[in-house]
Design a protein that fits this description.
By secondary structure, this protein is of the alpha/beta class. The chain has 16 helices and twelve strands. The protein has a ten-stranded mixed beta sheet, with helices on both faces. A two-stranded antiparallel sheet has the order 6-7. It is globular, with a radius of gyration of 21 Å.
């Protein structure tokens, strides 16, 4: 009986959420904002260190805009695991209040407790922020020109098993049940965003990734919605793959270069984008955007690396992921040329030239040194030609 009541409560909340999605507001227009407020959340572990370096890069690139009052940076404290555990909330109320005063966020990794940790069972801060701000689209690009890889992943960000992860129930000591939730309006908006991106960027293929042959109801709804929306874009090829075989095809050198835009439910998107990031140099080099109509959050895709902190290696943490997220942030708020400069500098420093190498240990560069390397590269008046030369070599 208790399990039935528990499920009933979850069901009621999700039905209300569906109606809320249907009434969603229009997209924010950053050209009408003065200032655009960028909130900076350090997070846990190596997060404050690498996010601080990324903030340094963005402040350098936007120094004129800051001086003119067009952009403002605000550091938001208190989103640490210690504080979240203290108040038993994924986001403390005062932190959430400050977050909502910003337009976009640059966020470091936060620790999510797992069973057996000393921390209480609180929801992921990432998941909570995404739900609270309705950041329904997680967008992760992966480019490795030398291998012909140019992918962009659109991962649904507010549904699936992650949305209800903390709300499973242990019915008996022998039976535990978690919940997976997919909605039609939630699927429609992420799928449409993927097709719109393909249309605007001259992409010819959008691929859905599910496990609809086994998870027939929820994944089936996502896939059905995908093909319904695909009919509105006759110039774009639409196809679908199952998550298990797709993980194999990303390492298939004959097949992987065919993929362009991929759209996925939450869990599969998390898994596949981590795999994809390895081609670009690992999760430490990949950033991601969490996009909603009113807010947006840009972050690393890796964790808080508490072991690095415990071993005294924080200064060797690679800030590339958050800096690349910063480039995505610049593009999102309309500073496309600055975003392009930063992306080119990151490519040169991290993929091509590699004058400094990050190893995560004293055998490599510190995050501060690598950040300085990026800043020096950005200032090169020959930056674009230098980047183009590396493209030819690739």
């Amino acid at each position: 009986m208790k399990a039935m009541e528990h499920f009933g409560g979850i069901l009621e909340k999700q039905l209300k959420r569906v109606e809320t999605i249907k009434k969603a507001e229009e997209w924010i227009d950053y050209t009408k904002l003065k200032p655009i407020i960028i909130g900076v959340i350090g997070g846990d572990g190596i997060g404050p260190y690498i996010t601080g370096e990324a903030q340094r890069v963005l402040e350098h690139l936007l120094k004129n805009e800051v001086a003119e009052g067009k952009v403002e940076f605000r550091v938001i404290e208190g989103c640490t695991i210690e504080r979240r555990a203290e108040v038993m909330k994924p986001i403390p109320d005062d932190v959430l209040e400050e977050i909502k005063k910003c337009h976009v966020l640059l966020k470091g990794p936060t620790t999510t407790p797992k069973k057996g940790d000393p921390w209480p069972n609180i929801e992921s801060a990432n998941v909570a922020i995404r739900k609270e701000l309705d950041l329904f689209a997680n967008v992760r690009p992966v480019r490795v020109p030398s291998q012909g890889i140019d992918w962009i992943f659109f991962r649904e960000n507010t549904e699936d098993v992650y949305a209800l992860g903390p709300f499973g129930i242990e019915v008996t000591p022998d039976l535990a049940i978690d919940f997976k939730m997919i909605t039609k309006p939630g699927s429609e908006r992420i799928i449409r965003l993927a097709f719109e991106y393909a249309k605007k960027n001259n992409k010819t293929r959008v691929t859905a990734v599910t496990k609809a042959n086994v998870v027939k109801t929820t994944d089936g709804l996502f896939l059905k919605t995908f093909y319904e929306i695909a009919k509105e874009y006759p110039g774009i090829n639409a196809d679908d793959w199952f998550i298990d075989i797709m993980t194999a095809k990303l390492v298939d050198t004959k097949r992987r270069t065919e993929f362009q835009v991929l759209v996925l439910p939450n869990l599969y998107g998390d898994i596949l984008t981590d795999e994809a990031a390895e081609f670009q140099g690992g999760v430490g080099t990949a950033g991601s955007a969490n996009i909603g109509k009113r807010y947006a959050m840009f972050e690393a895709i890796h964790g808080s690396a508490p072991r690095m902190v415990q071993e005294g290696r924080t200064q060797y943490a690679d800030p590339s992921s958050v800096i690349r997220a910063g480039a995505m942030l610049l593009n999102h708020i309309g500073y496309v040329e600055l975003g392009k400069k930063l992306e080119m500098a990151l490519d040169i420093c991290g993929q091509y030239e590699k004058k400094l190498v990050m190893t995560g240990r004293s055998t490599g560069a510190t995050g501060r040194d690598f950040c300085n390397y990026i800043l020096e590269t950005i200032e090169d008046p020959n930056l674009e030609n230098r980047w183009k030369e590396y493209q030819k070599v690739g």
